[in-house]
Specification:
Layout lengths: L1 H24 E4 L3 E7 L2 E6 L2 E4 L5 E7 L3 E11 L5 E12 L2 H6 L4 H18 L3 H6 L1 H16 L4 E12 L2 H43 L2 H15 L12 H24 L1
Antiparallel strand pairs: 1-4, 2-3, 2-5, 6-7, 7-8
Helix pairs in contact: 3-5
Length: 267
């Protein structure tokens, strides 16, 4: 009985050891991962995806995720070239393209990419003016992406997109910009009004030339004005008298006064 029990215990221990060794030898790597293999501390290479075997107690595997990582860059206090203090944050999209380099050449590629992104953000925006930061954000995004990608390329990291998310301005600067924008709108309104007056004067001058050539058109204009006044249901009736008619009576009056003046002169 004791021999049977000892045999079962031995078999159990052997099975546990075999299962432990088997779990250390058999590795499964997903489609979006790669396994970097070290044998006695020496780099062997990357494997995966799928099932493969390692030598227990000899080989060591480090899994590397190849999917795109979205990393938020913490807000940075930046002084622009025109001495304006702003707070800027950004987002960086990157992925590992060389698993071996990301394990061998850098301790933590995620933290290293985060630190280089923060320093690059401060340096690039510190060399730009506030107007460029607000109006040429796409250009700054491309510059940031290029610089960060060049810095992280030796680590096997590919930075695909860098986007400036938010620019926080001081309250005094916001008020100044609002006043500037209001003044610009007032200036545009005055220019538009002046251009309208100029165009209207040109059209009136052209209309005056046409009326001077055709005096009948002035009478038609009188009739049109009377029609417009009558359509307003007003109790006041305005009857326009041509200036030519008045001048005719004035000429007659001067003619009647001239003989009397001549008679007085003769006497």
């Amino acid at each position: 009985m004791e021999e049977t029990l000892n045999t079962l215990i031995t078999v159990g221990v052997v099975l546990v050891i075999l299962l432990l060794i088997l779990s250390m030898a058999v590795k499964v790597v997903a489609e979006y991962e790669r396994g970097v293999i070290f044998r006695l501390g020496r780099l062997i290479g990357g494997k995966g995806p799928g099932l493969f075997f390692l030598i227990p107690f000899v080989d060591r595997m480090v899994k590397v995720d190849l999917r795109v990582v979205t990393m938020d860059v913490p807000g940075q206090e930046v002084i622009t070239r025109d001495n304006v203090t702003v707070r800027v944050n950004a987002v960086v999209y990157f992925r590992v393209v060389d698993p071996e380099a990301s394990v061998v050449k850098v301790v933590d590629h995620y933290r290293a990419t985060s630190q280089i992104s923060q320093t690059t953000l401060r340096n690039v925006l510190g060399q730009s003016e506030l107007d460029e930061l607000l109006s040429q954000r796409e250009k700054l995004n491309q510059i940031l992406q290029q610089i960060i990608d060049e810095a992280t390329a030796p680590w096997g990291v590919k930075v695909s997109i860098v986007e400036i998310k938010e620019v926080e301005l001081p309250e005094a600067m916001k008020r100044s910009m609002a006043a500037q924008a209001e003044a610009e709108r007032v200036r545009r309104a005055k220019i538009i009004h002046a251009e309208g007056e100029m165009q209207a004067s040109q059209k009136l001058a052209q209309a005056g030339k046409v009326i001077a050539k055709e005096p009948v058109s002035l009478q038609l204009r009188y009739l049109q004005t009377m029609t417009e006044i009558a359509s307003e249901h007003s109790n006041t009736i305005i009857f326009p008298v041509p200036v030519d008619l008045i001048s005719m009576f004035m000429d007659k009056g001067k003619g009647m006064m001239n003989p009397k003046i001549e008679k007085d002169t003769k006497e």
